[in-house]
């Protein structure tokens, strides 16, 4: 039990924030500059279970919501209707694509991230402003602020030594609440996007246990993302992208993604985390108010013990409220 608890504490040091596989369909979760990017109120609910079958494995639940303010996008023309059998995200759509009008966006995020007896939660609100740079190019900048908290329920830990140095003999719940701040920028057009963001901007000490060995510092997490869209025939859009994640005193993490979307109904995707693992993804736009997606990860990191290399499930359910143009899939986040 002692070794298992130490492993969880070390994992908390290395993975201070949750991991996500499907950030490609909800980049707002890592960059507040996407707040209010679409024409509608975007709601996402997600559940992620890592290392399936391993007791105390990480589990993440989140809810995000964001909406535009003062956004004035219209269809390409008053008579632009979808033609049955044709791809609504086909060549003509992208030729007629125009940058979004300048507008504001507001949003909120709730995240709960649990690993064994260690629980982290985040509650933030966000704001972004979107500015047109050219007929097809937008730049947005945003920030999010709120609180993050950490708890260790020491009363539920069964130790052979009741004064185990890992928890210093404490048997009650240990708590820590800190301010949370993140910021980012996002550049987007009809054929590419690029962004950079920072979470946990304010470095802070987190001392939940008596032993210096298990004290940690909350450090900034930097995310740099870019992607490109190209047509593979009349019916399919292919969207390769890359994300680089930097955490001080840790190796640089690189994700390579690809997503292939058929019309605006369903998509398939893959993710390769260099030296970490890979994932398969799929999503379906059920209607203009509901979509769902699923991913399965396989971990092969040399930093994880063998029993931590089990599969990971992640599901995301999306709701599109106030979708006055009936979009089945996002116009700006593709």
From TrEMBL:
List, alphabetically, the InterPro entries matched.
Answer: PorP/SprF_Bacteroidetes
Show the NCBIfam families listed in the entry: T9SS_PorP_fam
Record protein name field: Type IX secretion system PorP/SprF family membrane protein
* Protein species of origin: Lacibacter cauensis
**Classification of source organism:** Bacteria, Pseudomonadati, Bacteroidota, Chitinophagia, Chitinophagales
């Amino acid at each position: 039990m002692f070794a298992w608890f130490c492993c969880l504490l070390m994992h908390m040091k290395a993975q201070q924030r949750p991991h996500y596989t499907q950030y490609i369909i909800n980049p707002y979760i890592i960059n507040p500059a996407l707040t209010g990017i679409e024409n509608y109120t975007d709601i996402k609910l997600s559940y992620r279970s890592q290392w399936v079958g391993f007791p105390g494995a990480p589990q993440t639940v989140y809810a995000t919501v964001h909406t535009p303010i003062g956004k004035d996008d219209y269809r390409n023309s008053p008579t632009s209707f979808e033609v049955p059998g044709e791809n609504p995200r086909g060549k003509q759509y992208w030729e007629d694509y125009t940058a979004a009008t300048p507008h504001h966006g507001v949003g909120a995020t709730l995240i709960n991230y649990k690993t064994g007896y260690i629980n982290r939660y985040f509650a933030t609100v966000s704001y972004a402003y979107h500015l047109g740079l050219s007929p097809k190019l937008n730049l947005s900048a945003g920030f999010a602020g709120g609180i993050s908290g950490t708890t260790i329920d020491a009363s539920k830990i069964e130790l052979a030594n009741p004064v185990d140095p890992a928890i210093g003999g404490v048997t009650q719940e240990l708590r820590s609440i800190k301010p949370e701040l993140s910021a980012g920028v996002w550049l987007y057009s009809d054929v590419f996007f690029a962004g950079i963001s920072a979470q946990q901007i304010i470095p802070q000490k987190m001392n939940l246990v008596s032993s210096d060995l298990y004290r940690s510092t909350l450090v900034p997490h930097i995310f740099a993302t870019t992607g490109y869209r190209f047509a593979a025939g009349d019916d399919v859009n292919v969207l390769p992208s890359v994300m680089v994640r930097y955490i001080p005193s840790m190796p640089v993490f690189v994700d390579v993604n690809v997503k292939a979307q058929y019309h605006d109904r369903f998509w398939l995707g893959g993710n390769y985390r260099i030296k970490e693992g890979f994932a398969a993804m799929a999503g379906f736009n059920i209607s203009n108010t509901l979509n769902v997606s699923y991913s399965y990860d396989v971990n092969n990191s040399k930093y994880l013990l063998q029993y931590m290399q089990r599969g990971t499930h992640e599901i995301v359910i999306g709701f599109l409220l106030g979708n006055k143009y009936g979009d089945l899939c996002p116009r700006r986040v593709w």
